[in-house]
Design goal:
Elements (H helix, E strand, L loop, with lengths): L2 H14 L8 H8 L13 E4 L5 E5 L2 E4 L5 E3 L17 E4 L12 E5 L2 E6 L2 E2 L5 E2 H4 L9 E5 L8 E6 L2 E6 L5 E5 L8 E5 L2 E6 L2 E5 L12 E2 L28 E4 L5 E5 L2 E4 L9 E3 L13 E5 L2 E6 L2 E6 L5 E2 L5 E2 H5 L7 E4 L5 E6 L2 E6 L7 E6 L7 E5 L2 E6 L2 E5 L2 H6 L7 E2 L2 H4 L4
Antiparallel strand pairs: 1-2, 2-3, 3-4, 5-6, 6-7, 7-8, 7-9, 10-11, 11-12, 12-13, 14-15, 15-16, 16-17, 18-19, 19-20, 20-21, 22-23, 23-24, 24-25, 24-26, 27-28, 28-29, 29-30, 31-32, 32-33, 33-34
Helix pairs in contact: 1-2
Amino acid sequence: MDLLTKTLFLCLALALANGAPAPGADEEADAHVAVPDRCEGIEFDAITPDEKGTTFFFKGCHVWKGFHGPAQLSNEVFKELNGINHSHVDAAFRMHNTENPDVHDHIFFFQGDKVFSYYNHTLEDGYPKQILEQFPGIPSHLDAAVECPRGECTADSVLFFKGHDVHIYDISTKQVKTKNWPHLPVCTSVLRWLEHYYCFHGHNFTKFNPVSGVVNGTYPKDARNYFMKCPNFGHGSHSMVPKCSEIKIDAITADDAGKTYLFQGPMYMRLDTHRDGLHPFQITRTWKELTNGVDAVFSFVDKIYMIKDEQVYIYKTAAHYTLIEGYPKTLKEELGIEGHVDAAFVCPGEHTVHIIQGKQIRTVDLSASPRAVTADMPLPIADIDGGLCGPEGVTIFKGSQFYQYRSVRILATGKIFVNPQDVTPAMLGCRE
């Protein structure tokens, strides 16, 4: 009996267990079934994270929890999924809709014409439902589904895949727009991970833009090199994670939407998505014009300002970062300053940027035109790598340590001595 037959045999035994099982069926299944090994190359039926950020990979009646470890029966984790009529998940996604806490972070599973809603691995009352009842205009027997939050899509949405058709469901209005993306492989599962979207097909995946479906880069790629730990596979990303005692950042910023980015050399990392894992990416993956890294970065309103040498690049933060026409411009043109910038930050609710150059901190009014320095103060410490301002004050990074100040004025006057603290894995994604 081959692996597929064995797996189907066990799934059938599980389904019959809800009705009248044949004598000895479960015992025979247990004696002969072989648990599938995703490192052999598997086409997944569905992939989704749960509310805690753990990613689940489904195949037949089995599921893998996280990026490593063996498979287990899916109805041991999500009861009620393996019923008489279906033994596998067609599609799954984790809902993103912060305006509606009754559904936000719930996992939706699709089987045939039915949809199941789980939270904390518990089936919600009233489920399963007909797909058309929960998601009007969405077909049954889906291939894949994935959430698309506002900012990455134009509104909080869900993308439903069936063949080459993509049904874009607006969560608030319940309106559906259908697009045809024949250039994208037929996706048997789709995963949103760290703001990126991945179509899985066979044992490969293809990264795509969730708005246009455009594929940039060389694809497909083998999922075993990126989404699971397998012998003789891997793209070497773990070697890029530095020890906390050795870390030295180039820049750090947080925008009004709560997105926090750390920059180091040619790499960046999204820090506020820690529940889904901290992972470094090439800066050019998101900001393709910045081929030589950054010196300083700050966010203001709906834009992110990225400084390298004497140039300022400004990107729109809505949806996928787009360089504003006419940029880069010189520091002198954009901010009224010259010379190397060590760090820059904007405090919440303010329209001034604080720019650190050596042992000076300069303030520039971003609402003025032309922009110019409005204040110039000495700093008590030099060789600063990055700065971040939030509700609790100003955090200054220097090597593997940071300093915490209650305000910019306290930082500049230096009248209060502040002891440095060591950065931690929880802060910057480094390792002990």
